[in-house]
Design a protein that fits this description.
Layout (H helix, E strand, L loop, with lengths): L2 E7 L4 H8 L5 E3 L19 E8 L6 H14 L1 H4 L10 E10 L11 H9 L3 E8 L10
Parallel strand pairs: 4-5
Antiparallel strand pairs: 1-3, 1-4, 2-3
Helix pairs in contact: 2-4
Length: 142
């Protein structure tokens, strides 16, 4: 998944939030719980609690599709997402777009006014997470 909505905070109650807003999250993290409970080596814990919602499953290089999916998600869930505003336990609420890090002299990504307006009116920030995408096919050594 390349775009998701993340809502979190140190005192955030993810169970109350997901029940109140009525949108089932794809993942819940609770402060103090192990980040990777199935790993015997990694023992780090979550610093904050949070809910994570799938917004788009478009690929990293399909930023335009992610944007259209996000606009659709925000319009479809606007009523439910108004529960973010006014909650004192929400410290962070943002759409996180996972996009391709292009190897160019100047990397620019455009966010249309409709997306900015919808996100802003719901109290959401926007984050662009750039990931390097390898175009080389891994070949076994000859």
């Amino acid at each position: 998944m390349s775009c998701f909505l993340r809502i979190s905070g140190p005192e955030f109650d993810p169970d109350d939030f997901s029940e109140t807003c009525g949108i089932p999250p794809y993942r819940i993290a609770r402060k103090g719980e192990l980040k990777y409970p199935s790993s015997p080596r990694i023992t780090s814990t979550h610093d904050v609690s949070g809910c994570y919602y799938e917004v788009s499953d478009a690929e990293f290089e399909e930023f335009e599709t992610q944007i259209q999916d996000a606009i659709h998600f925000l319009k479809s869930n606007a009523g439910a997402l108004t529960c973010i505003q006014g909650r004192t336990d929400v410290q962070y609420a943002a759409l996180d777009f996972g996009i391709e890090l292009r190897d160019v002299a100047v990397h620019c990504d455009y966010l249309p006014p409709e997306l900015l307006f919808l996100a802003g009116s719901l109290g959401l920030g926007i984050e662009l997470s750039h990931y390097p995408i390898s175009t080389e096919i891994d070949q076994p050594p000859a």
